[in-house]
């Protein structure tokens, strides 16, 4: 009986460690994605259009960036 309780305790600890590791991994993945999105949004807000010669926000359409003023592709 004592052997059985040790096995159950070890299995429960293993399961808890796996769940905590999985949740930590999910948190870090979403945190990295959020940082990348913030960097991209910051870069988009600081874009410079050489046609209009001003710093203006750009639009993204099908993965391409366009000037929101003149439509020039960046």
Automatic annotation (TrEMBL):
<keyword id="KW-0472">Membrane</keyword>
<keyword id="KW-1133">Transmembrane helix</keyword>
<keyword id="KW-0812">Transmembrane</keyword>
<protein>
    <submittedName>
        <fullName>Uncharacterized protein</fullName>
    </submittedName>
</protein>
<feature type="transmembrane region" description="Helical">
    <location>
        <begin position="6"/>
        <end position="30"/>
    </location>
</feature>
């Amino acid at each position: 009986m004592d052997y059985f309780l040790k096995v159950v305790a070890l299995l429960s600890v293993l399961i808890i460690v796996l769940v905590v590791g999985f949740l930590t991994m999910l948190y870090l993945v979403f945190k990295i994605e959020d940082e990348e999105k913030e960097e991209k949004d910051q870069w988009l807000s600081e874009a410079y259009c050489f046609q209009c010669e001003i710093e203006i926000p750009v639009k993204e359409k099908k993965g391409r960036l366009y000037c929101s003023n003149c439509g020039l592709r960046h």
